[in-house]
# Entry
Amino acid sequence: MFCDIKRIGTGKGSEKGQKRDLALIVSDVPAAVAGMFTTNQVCAAPVKVSARRAATKFARAIVVNSGNANACTGRQGMRDAEEMTRLTAQAVAALYERRNRKESAVTDYRYRRISAQDVLVCSTGRIGIAMPMKNVERGIRECAPLLARSTTNARQVAEAIMTSDTRRKEIAVEFKIDNCRVRIGGNCKGAGMIQPGMAVATKHATMLAFITSDVAIEPGSLKRALEIAIAQSFNRITVDGDMSTNDAVIMLANGLAENSKLGARNSRFELFQAALNHICLELAKMIVRDGEGTSRFVTLHVRGARHARDAETAARSIANSSLVKTSWCGGDPNWGRILCALGYSGAKVDEAMVDVGYAKPGDRKVIFGFRRGNPTNVSLQKLAKITSAPEFDLHVDLHAGRGEFVLYAADLTENYVTFNKGDVNDPATLGG
# Structure
């Protein structure tokens, strides 16, 4: 839905011209709900509202807007976030009433009834600007009658949540459980302010992801499955090392596939988990590939750490180092900068034991530039042939234990700086 939310708050419209900036995701029946949210202590009003509601067992809808983060907006921001859920519940309930009268249908009242407590809310965009609630209310009321199961509608949701993204990010899979056809579909947004660190229902340009499924699953099992999937995907990406105030991943599963309800101890749960892992990882990689100004996608493998925590610490230190990221931008296989980042990472590192090597994406053949405390005789030109490609793998072995971690990262380019630096001659680019 076109609400012009960004222009009302800042006086400046979207850089993409007029674009959809509000969407509704609605289940016809109560759906098991799971959600994970930013652990940033400065978090947006919609995060606070949705985290509480995602901690319950069931939900019915999500309302999401782009162009305004509704973060750092005080008590009014909380009232606005809650009002968005109330307006959504009211509009969706009215829609079901109209459809039932038109079709002379007799529908279980439980499925038509929806309250504000059944609705989650997400926002992304500028921080510190009050929500233009008149535009939001109009958008919700105009959006509700357009609800339908269609590829077109799904793509419009993917467009509506975009901010600095250059393209939609969406994926779906279909498989069978109990000989029932089951579907999982998801979309996400994110290009800058990307280093999610999300936890389940924590109180505390953004990464948002919405996943829906018709699988029948226990709410507790869905929460566990989403936590596992996010730990292997969204929580393993970084574009610029900044954690947003608004990060959220929300999943609804309404059971309409009519498979026997899954529980965490059910053998069929593993199939569902594998499918959800795939959805989340592919969406997460899309975010990094579309990072603001990025030109390189790097899969960083750290192994041989004392434990998994050390491996993650080492990986994030490398991937978020400005010197390392700018060398990636130039296609420079500068392992010296990598060793430097390892040394101050906080992980236990013995320079004399470290290996640093490069490979084509997914290739088992690793070309090492540094091994066991010494440069190798491999030429920089040979290494640069790998690191100058749009995508490559970086392998770091600490030879200190069995800890491993994989991180998906991006380079740092002049375009990123240009996009984010602000302009004192254009007040709309300054501030939150």
Q: What stands out?
A: The chain is about 35% helix and 25% strand. The radius of gyration is 23 Å. The chain has a mean pLDDT of 91. Residues 305 and 403 are 4 Å apart (CA to CA).
